[in-house]
Design a protein that fits this description.
The protein has about 200 residues and is mainly α. Helix 8 packs across helix 9 (about 170-190). The longest helix is centred in the first third of the chain and has 23 residues, at about 20-45. About 70% of the residues lie in helices and about 0% in strands. The protein is elongated, with a radius of gyration of 19 Å. The protein has helices at about 10-15, 20-45, 45-65, 75-95, 105-110, 120-135, 140-150, 160-165, 170-190.
């Protein structure tokens, strides 16, 4: 019996289109965490994220069965692009201008302390830090916000980001570099402490 877990994404897509529904289940389980994290850290609402995740899966199924999948070897970036478009639709419906933000970004980029043994007060301070940094991210150019979101919450490699955004890897890396430079400048200009201890 064929072990679906051992098949590549492309082979699973082909199996699914040929009528094997289990193949799609394996694909989704394989990429669920990265895709859901991308959606959740964009919309900031678990229920809405779950809705968008399900809608992304439905659109993917419809596209594949309709013969509109031509992304050999790039299944996750393709799914992320579908989710991204649905997220934009969500924000348009909510009449919000901000389409990219990142609650936990300060921890990974600015090397804030880890959460171990944090008190309730520490958590409250850290939440405020996240809110402050999140607001500043909205001032970054769209291309820089996008690469931050794809890298830190979509968990895509720079190679995958380059493919997804249709640029070279060097360009993707450059966008991230400028995003970090601009974010640190904004943090300094706004006098925001990026650690709960202030150190």
């Amino acid at each position: 019996m064929m072990n679906l877990q051992e098949l590549s994404d492309q082979a699973l897509v082909e199996q699914f289109v040929a009528g094997d529904s289990k193949s799609f289940e394996v694909l989704i389980e394989r990429h669920r965490n990265r895709l859901f994290s991308y959606i959740y850290y964009t919309v900031k609402n678990r229920h809405k994220a779950e809705d968008i995740f399900q809608e992304t899966c439905i659109k993917a199924i419809t596209s594949m069965l309709g013969g509109r999948y031509s992304e050999a070897g790039r299944f996750l970036p393709w799914m992320t692009r579908i989710a991204h478009n649905l997220i934009i639709d969500h924000f348009r419906q909510e009449k919000q201008l901000i389409i990219c933000s990142s609650d936990g970004f300060a921890v990974s980029v600015l090397n804030s302390p880890k959460y171990s043994d944090a008190t309730i007060e520490d958590d409250m301070v850290q939440d405020q830090i996240y809110a402050d940094v999140r607001n500043l991210i909205d001032y970054l150019p769209d291309e820089q916000k996008e690469v931050i979101l794809l890298r830190h919450y979509g968990d895509l490699s720079f190679k995958e980001i380059a493919e997804y955004t249709d640029v070279s890897i060097n360009t993707a890396l450059g966008r991230m570099r400028y995003a970090l430079i601009n974010l640190r400048r904004l943090i300094k200009e706004n006098g925001i402490q990026v650690t709960a201890s202030g150190k």
